[in-house]
Q: What sequence folds into this?
């Protein structure tokens, strides 16, 4: 939530006055095309920094999705999971469906601000998937973690979904660190 508020400050939507509170400044930053205001260098970025941001919003998304996901949204999450389970050693399948799995969870969270923040990161998230899908040493472990996240969301277990997502992203981080050391 803290990060979402920071994003709204960057977009000049709210302002925080130390010791006084947080106030709406202008809604203009939310008008058409607002994600373009949060421009990020796509050519070069630090994967660990992106992972830190993912840990902030994807754990919250999993928590909210467990509380809010509709039957249709649960089906969308599972549709992105099933191809991964059918081809648990295929890097190409992981690259494509890993992104769709996480995106479906963000959508199922039912928070338009969160969806907007995530959509502003799409180019970075897609680039990161191209990298991480090729460097993970154990795809079946990632896919199993995806199943655990999905089941927690399906059962409406918000805290379990949040914890499962955090553990999953921790694994991704460890894979990134070990790949960097090679």
A:
């Amino acid at each position: 939530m803290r990060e979402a508020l920071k994003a709204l400050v960057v977009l000049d939507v709210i302002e925080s006055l130390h010791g006084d509170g947080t106030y709406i400044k202008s809604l203009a930053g939310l008008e058409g095309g607002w994600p373009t205001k949060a421009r990020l260098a796509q050519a070069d970025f630090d994967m660990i920094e992106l992972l830190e941001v993912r840990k902030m919003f994807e754990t919250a998304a999993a928590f909210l999705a467990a509380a809010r996901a509709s039957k249709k949204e649960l089906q969308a999450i599972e549709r992105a999971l099933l191809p991964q389970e059918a081809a648990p050693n295929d890097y190409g399948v992981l690259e494509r469906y890993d992104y769709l799995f996480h995106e479906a969870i963000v959508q199922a969270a039912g928070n338009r601000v969160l969806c907007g923040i995530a959509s502003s990161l799409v180019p970075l998230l897609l680039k990161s998937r191209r990298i991480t899908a090729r460097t993970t040493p154990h795809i079946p472990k990632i896919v199993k973690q995806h199943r655990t996240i999905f089941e927690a969301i399906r059962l409406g277990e918000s805290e379990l979904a949040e914890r499962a997502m955090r553990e999953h992203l921790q694994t991704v981080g460890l894979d990134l660190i070990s790949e960097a050391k090679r």
Remarks:
- Helices lie at 2-10, 47-68, 71-86, 91-108, 112-120, 122-135, 139-154, 158-181.
- Strands lie at 14-17, 21-24.
